[in-house]
Design brief:
By secondary structure, this protein is mainly beta. 9% of the residues lie in helices and 36% in strands. The chain is built from 2 helices and 6 strands. It has helices at residues 47-56, 98-101; strands at residues 2-4, 9-12, 18-27, 38-46, 62-75, 81-94. A hairpin with a 5-residue loop joins strand 2 and strand 3. It is globular and about 45 Å long. The relative contact order is 0.15.
Length: 151
């Protein structure tokens, strides 16, 4: 989870498959006192996830991704072996506030963060989350009495 360091870049393979590349700045948990350090993680998303990310995320947006690490290599123009390590994105989550995502509610057509900054369900495979279960304060609306609560 972190912030996009630049706008996602959309390309297409020769076969027409959408692919997006972007970089996420992730703050390290442990750093020297008074200093904050970040890692910059390159990511690549394919198909629906690529289109979704390019449509709804911009430089500075908070994002959480789930995926696998991939290392690839190729011969550069100078003949030297080049390497890249990146996260191949499987799932995408909104993690920012309503103000950060630039929406005023569910009518904007995409997810918001609720309760602790994490999305209640992944927004992968082009799916759009259902907001009917949340009230304006971001808490789940429950049908039934308070006696049904486990605490």
């Amino acid at each position: 989870m972190g912030r996009l360091t630049r706008d996602p870049e959309m390309r297409q393979t020769p076969q027409g498959t959408p692919v997006a590349s972007f970089s996420v700045a992730v703050n390290r948990r442990f750093a020297k006192e008074g200093q904050q350090q970040a890692d910059f993680i390159n990511c690549v998303a394919w198909r629906q996830q690529a289109e979704f990310i390019c449509k709804y995320f911009r430089k500075g947006s908070m994002i959480a991704v789930v995926g696998s690490i991939q290392t690839r290599s190729w011969d550069g123009q100078d003949g030297k072996r080049q390497y890249a390590t990146e996260v191949v994105v499987d799932e995408v989550y909104f993690t920012g506030s309503k103000a950060e995502t630039g929406t005023n509610g569910p009518s904007a057509g995409y997810g918001q963060s609720y309760g602790g900054g994490y999305e209640k369900q992944p927004v992968s495979q082009g799916a759009e989350p259902n907001f009917d279960a949340f009230d304006s304060a971001g808490f789940s609306v429950m049908d039934g009495s308070e006696d049904d609560l486990p605490f």
